[in-house]
Amino acid sequence: MLSLSTITGMEIHQHSYWNPIIQFQLSEDTYPHWNLFCIEEGVFEYEVMGQKGEAQFGEIIFCPPHIPLKRKAVTPLKFHFLRFSFRDIEQYELPVGKIKILDTERLSSTYSHLRSMAFNETELSNRWKAHLIYDLLQLYGMENQLLTIDNQPKIKDPVIAKAIEHLHEQAFTHTTIQRIASHCGLSSIQFTRRFQESIGISPSEYLTLLRLRQARTLLLETDYTIDDIANRCGYSNGFYFSRVFSKKMKMSPSSFRKMHRI
Predict the structure, then answer these.
(1) pLDDT per position as a tens digit, 104-146
(2) Are 204 and 226 part of one and the same domain?
(3) Which of 11, 58, 154, 225 is most buried (CB neighbours < 10 A)?
(4) Is residue 179 exposed (0-12), middle (13-18) or buried (19+ Cβ within 10 Å)?
(5) Cα distance between residue 45 and residue 61, in whole Å
């Protein structure tokens, strides 16, 4: 899960814009900083830390420092390439591999601003670029936390569309992703890959969002104990539920109830 509250001092080291590129000179490369590929047009194959697939407009590839990134142009590409790091970090967690931005109008606007500053490495320009990248990360985090469940993009994969219906039906039972995958006639690996391609997050993350949304409602609208709420949300016990809730919400269930209950 993305955590950006303690990130300060993002520093842009490189920003290149390719319009277009037919093929990469190197099929694999490693960089000393975080790097990302923002695709405006076209399709390319990627592989990073065991994740692989295709990326196109609406999707961004993140690769950590000193980690090999394999890439191959499937069609002619227009994309931004940026390298960045942080001057002061207490704690952070950035996505690795592909993420999906649902608000494509805002994404197009961001890319338009980046195009106007491509290859411009002045201090002011890089500060603006850092702001734009930070904004995209915040947008991605917000979409995952708040929008994915209620405002999904149209899902083209019929198997995943049915899987989501099944997830909503079974979310508050003690179901597992393995069972959902089996219900769809897929292995866990196949299911996770296809789900991530369609939704932009993993099925386990999606299931967690469903359960925590229900947990928040029960915390605020009932007097159920933590163990009761855990059981009603599909968790095996209150301890594990509290650990998941605290990690995602940055506070314990009891603290959440105390702070937000009217």
Answers:
(1) 889 999 999 999 998 888 889 999 999 999 888 888 877 766 4
(2) yes
(3) 58
(4) middle
(5) 10
Report residue 223 as tokens. Answer: 């007097």
Write phi, then psi, for 125 (nearest 5 degrees). -60, -40
Q: Is 230 contained in some domain?
A: yes
State pTM to two decimals.
0.60
- Under 8 Å between Cβ of 57 and 64: no
**2 within domain boundaries:** no
Is 100 a domain residue? yes
164 shares a domain with 113 = no
Domain count, the chain: 2
Q: Where in the sequence is the domain holding 92, given as residue range(s)?
A: 7-147
Q: Which of 126, 147, 168 is the last residue of a domain?
A: 147
Same domain, 113 and 229: no
* 226: nearest Cα among 248, 253, 207: 253
Instruction: Express each pLDDT in 59-103 by its tens digit.
Output: 999 999 999 999 999 999 999 999 998 776 544 568 889 988 878
Residues 6 or more apart whose Cβ sits within 8 Å of residue 244: 208, 211, 212, 235
Are 69 and 164 in a shared domain? no
